[in-house]
């Protein structure tokens, strides 16, 4: 929504309110720090600051005065959000990390059609001044002059957190930053903060709100009201939720906008429950910049939370913002769904305003989306910086129609491959959401002891049968790694780990020396004689693949090296029959079932790859999970706690906010339990 603007707080008014003006060298506010989930009396304080925190603009008294004087501080006129050059159209700002220690604000100035010109350098840091990965950035008009500004929390190694402001000059560039709020070490935890910007008290200046997650189920919103010159006063607790009915911040996606049209920006959120339900909530702003109790609205059991990103804008130009979700259906096509706020304060009125077919070629994880009125027609649009797989970077705009739906894509500025590093670009919006890591797809594997005489301790734990598949699934696995052997002369592909039949009833024989269903020592009918799967039989490759499909488990088959006795046999009849046993079951099922195959045998691997590709089964060679470092398996199993540090290091490398990584483990149950609460 276009917001009222004026140059706010003339000197005389500031004097009446007891507010201060000054240059960037003025003293910063000190922020009380939420070191624990506490009540109002224990709101964050530091030496020299009253309970609740104070700043240049005063504490509670200043908030009251600001709200009372609201009618006098905003005058007629309107401006689009984040208009950095004063031409009446929104622009986009980005924080660019050059990767050499210095950073810059880059401004994408919009054109009359809603496209963008080449980005200009709006401000540039010195080497080591800021760390992009330790910043939480928002855009807003913090001094109320109608020009878009930037604010950012910077977290430091010593535990400090400081709020900096870059005021827009009106030509697309920014003044040097100043700080107006700082939390001392040991109080605010930077990782627990989610920053949002909006005019929460309706005084014509955008404020900053921080959703603070204590980690024990308690959550609070703190509001920092913007004062003269874009400086922020002491924060105050503007909403809280106790552990009994608290939320998990990793399951929330936020956007800010004036959803009820009262001149104050509100907070909207999508919550993804562990049950799979998603629900919209509105936190309407109050006159003092605080927030009312949430109102729950639209919900669905058909959405996947991690496939939705939230945005806000007045797409139909009626003076009220809509909450919008960009939804990636996971099959190549995407849609943008808008929700209006009803008279009851709940989000509803679900409307699809954009639908992109799979043929459009867009991938949501290559988009960095910012809403704004980029063509100056009074309706908000969606724009994105898009990073192509070949290294190109481009701006794309979806302008709004009069009915609030979006036009097709408008391509504008483009950077050739190698000029911009897409991962180094941080587009700046008015809201943030915690980057929730998506839980990995675990592939379970049965452990085999290490050391001498391992077969004596082996408990035959491999999931080479329906029971093993079912147990791995019950532990949280989405797939398994299992073992493929060939009987004598490659006549039958069977699921068995060991070189011999040790672990099975009957006389011990090498698997490659016996027939499947003939001879005195045949393999068929033998059963496991030890361990958790005692009594289970040996299954053929086809039987096992069908069981995996029935249980919705993804099979990864390791072709054991012993199989090369027939697969690389000098007799072509034996060789071709053996390969048919391996490849035919895959070919028969791959159109309806994901199947992967590999081998650790370096002699066999080239032939496997060549054969698989020649049969048109190349998909079976990709998508494999990664194996991270774990404790070696032993019987009895070692304590899983010895893996925690190893899993943490691996998760930091593999965890993703856009896709579910595939990770293989021998400790499926323990790994899944360790991941609980670390991902969604």
Quick recap:
This is VCBS repeat-containing protein. With about 675 residues, this protein is an alpha+beta fold.
Structural class determined from secondary elements: alpha+beta
Radius of gyration over all CA atoms, rounded: 30 Å
Shape by Cα distribution: elongated
CATH secondary-structure class of the largest domain: Mainly Beta
Total beta strand runs: 35
Please bin the fraction of helical residues: 10-25%
- The overall pLDDT average reads 87
Q: Can you tell me the residue ranges where pLDDT is under 50 for at least 5 consecutive residues?
A: 4-28, 35-77
Q: CATH topology of the largest domain, anyone?
A: Neuraminidase
Number of helices: 11
CATH architecture of the largest domain: 6 Propeller
Keywords: Signal
InterPro entries: FG-GAP (IPR013517), Integrin_alpha_N (IPR028994), PLC-like_Pdiesterase_TIM-brl (IPR017946)
Protein name: VCBS repeat-containing protein
GO molecular function, one term: phosphoric diester hydrolase activity
């Amino acid at each position: 929504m276009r917001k009222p603007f004026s140059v706010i707080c003339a000197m005389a008014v500031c004097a009446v309110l007891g507010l201060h003006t000054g240059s960037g060298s003025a003293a910063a506010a000190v922020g009380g720090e939420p070191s624990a989930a506490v009540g109002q009396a224990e709101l964050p304080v530091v030496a020299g600051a009253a309970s609740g925190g104070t700043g240049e603009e005063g504490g509670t008294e200043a908030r009251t005065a600001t709200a009372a004087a609201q009618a006098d501080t905003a005058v007629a006129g309107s401006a689009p959000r984040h208009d950095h050059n004063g031409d009446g159209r929104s622009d986009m700002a980005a924080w660019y990390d050059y990767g050499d220690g210095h950073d810059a604000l880059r401004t994408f100035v919009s054109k009359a059609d809603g496209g963008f010109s080449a980005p200009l350098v709006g401000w540039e840091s010195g080497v080591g001044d800021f760390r992009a990965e330790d910043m939480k950035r928002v855009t807003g008009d913090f001094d109320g002059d109608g020009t878009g500004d930037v604010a950012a929390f910077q977290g430091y190694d010593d535990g400090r957190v400081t709020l900096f402001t870059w005021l827009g000059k009106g030509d697309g560039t920014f003044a040097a930053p100043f700080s107006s709020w700082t939390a001392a070490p040991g109080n605010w935890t930077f990782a627990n903060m989610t920053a949002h910007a909006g005019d929460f008290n309706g005084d014509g200046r955008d404020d900053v709100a921080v959703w603070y997650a204590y980690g024990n189920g308690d959550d609070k919103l703190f509001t920092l009201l913007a004062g003269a010159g874009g400086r922020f006063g002491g924060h105050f607790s503007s909403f809280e939720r106790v552990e009994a009915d608290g939320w998990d911040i990793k399951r929330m996606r936020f956007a800010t906008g004036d959803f009820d049209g009262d001149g104050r920006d509100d907070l909207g959120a999508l919550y993804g429950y562990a049950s799979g339900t998603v629900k919209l909530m509105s936190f309407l702003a109050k006159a003092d910049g605080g927030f009312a109790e949430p109102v729950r609205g639209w919900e669905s059991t058909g959405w996947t939370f991690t496939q939705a990103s939230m945005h806000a804008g007045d797409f139909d130009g009626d003076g009220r913002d809509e909450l919008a979700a960009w939804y990636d259906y996971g099959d190549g096509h995407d849609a943008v769904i808008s929700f209006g706020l009803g008279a009851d304060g709940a989000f509803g009125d679900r409307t699809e305003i954009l639908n992109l077919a799979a043929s459009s070629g867009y991938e949501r994880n290559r988009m960095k989306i910012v809403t704004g009125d980029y063509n100056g027609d009074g309706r908000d649009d969606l724009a994105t910086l898009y990073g192509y797989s070949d290294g190109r970077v481009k701006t794309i705009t979806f302008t709004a129609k009069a009915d609030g739906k979006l036009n097709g894509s408008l391509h504008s500025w483009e950077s050739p491959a190698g000029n911009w590093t897409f991962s180094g670009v941080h587009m700046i919006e008015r809201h943030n959401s915690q980057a929730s890591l998506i839980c990995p797809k675990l592939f379970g594997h049965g452990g085999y002891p290490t050391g001498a005489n391992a077969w004596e301790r082996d408990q035959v734990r491999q999931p080479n049968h329906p029971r093993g598949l079912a147990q791995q699934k019950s532990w949280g696995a989405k797939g398994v790694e299992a073992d493929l052997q060939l009987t004598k002369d490659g006549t039958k592909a069977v699921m068995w780990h060991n070189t011999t039949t040790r672990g099975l009833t009957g006389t011990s024989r090498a698997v490659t020396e016996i027939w499947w269903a003939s001879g005195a020592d045949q393999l068929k009918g033998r059963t496991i004689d030890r361990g958790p799967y005692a009594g289970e039989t040996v299954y053929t490759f086809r039987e096992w693949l069908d069981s995996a499909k029935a249980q919705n488990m993804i099979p990864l088959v390791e072709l054991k090296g012993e199989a090369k006795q027939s697969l690389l046999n000098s007799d072509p009849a034996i060789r071709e029959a053996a390969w048919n046993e391996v490849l035919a079951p895959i070919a028969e099922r791959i159109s309806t079932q994901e199947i992967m195959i590999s081998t650790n045998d370096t002699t066999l691997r080239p032939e496997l790859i060549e054969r698989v590709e020649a049969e048109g089964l190349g998909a079976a060679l990709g998508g494999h999970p990664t194996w991270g470092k774990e404790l070696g398996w032993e019987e009895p199993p070692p304590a899983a706690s010895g893996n925690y540090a190893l899993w943490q290091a691996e998760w930091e490398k593999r965890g993703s906010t856009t896709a579910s990584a595939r990770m293989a483990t021998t400790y499926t149950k323990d790994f899944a339990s360790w991941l609980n609460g670390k991902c969604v």
